[in-house]
Amino acid sequence: MSDNQHSVAPTAVRLPRYTKTEQDEILGDGDDPFGVAAAGLTWLPKEEHFGIRHGDRLVAHAGLLRLPVAIGDTRTEVVGVGGVAVAPDMQGQGLARLVVTAALDHARTMGPQHALLFCRPPLVPLYQHLGWHPLDQDVLVEQPGTRLVTMPLRTMVTPLHDKAHWPSEPVRLFSLPM
């Protein structure tokens, strides 16, 4: 029997929890696993988690969190997507697409019309390939001590429903970023 007969295509599943140990399992235990420490931001933990295992090892993750925003004068909610990670030795195999797709499938059941994420500029093409669109306007986010700051990372949005339209107006997140 060949090894291929025993291999199973990777599948993203909902995780009951996502711990620092599991994050370290994917990205290692460095001080800046997402490469965003220089932004100096405080981030919210996600509430819903999706992952992909390779054997006993967690190799990919995406998290979700429902958040209040204002787009222009309209208050609404978005599903924030964050904590997207693929183990370096497993990159290039479509795992980001699989885990983000599973997370967005669940996000469609959560109510909001759009999902929002923040990413480093080198990741913009990856998310565009997955159907996300960069916003042209700045996004304000809250930080500890009642500070309101302009998000230094690239903000991207994707519709969760067919008729969802993102207006071209200023955006404010009424929470820490995800």
Write up what this structure looks like.
With 178 residues, this protein is α+β, with helices and mostly antiparallel strands. The chain is built from three helices and ten strands. It has helices at residues 20-27, 95-107, 124-129, and strands spanning 12-15, 48-54, 57-71, 74-86, 114-119, 133-134, 139-143, 147-150, 154-159, 171-173. Strands 1, 2, 3, 4, 5, 6, 7, 8, 9 and 10 form a ten-stranded mixed beta sheet that branches. The longest helix has 13 residues, at 95-107. It is globular. The chain starts with 11 loop residues before the first strand and ends in a 5-residue tail after the last strand. The relative contact order is 0.19.
Task: Summarize this structure as a short list of keywords or feature phrases.
alpha+beta, ten-stranded mixed beta sheet
Shape: globular
Radius of gyration: 17 Å
Order of helices and strands: EHEEEHEHEEEEE
| Percentage of residues in DSSP E strands | 35-45%
Please report the total strand number as a whole number: 10
Low-confidence parts: 1-6
Number of H- or I-type helical stretches: 3
Structural class: alpha+beta
Q: What does the main sheet amount to?
A: 10 strands, mixed
Average pLDDT rating:
90
User: Span between N and C termini?
Assistant: 46 Å
- As a percent range, the share of helical residues equals 10-25%
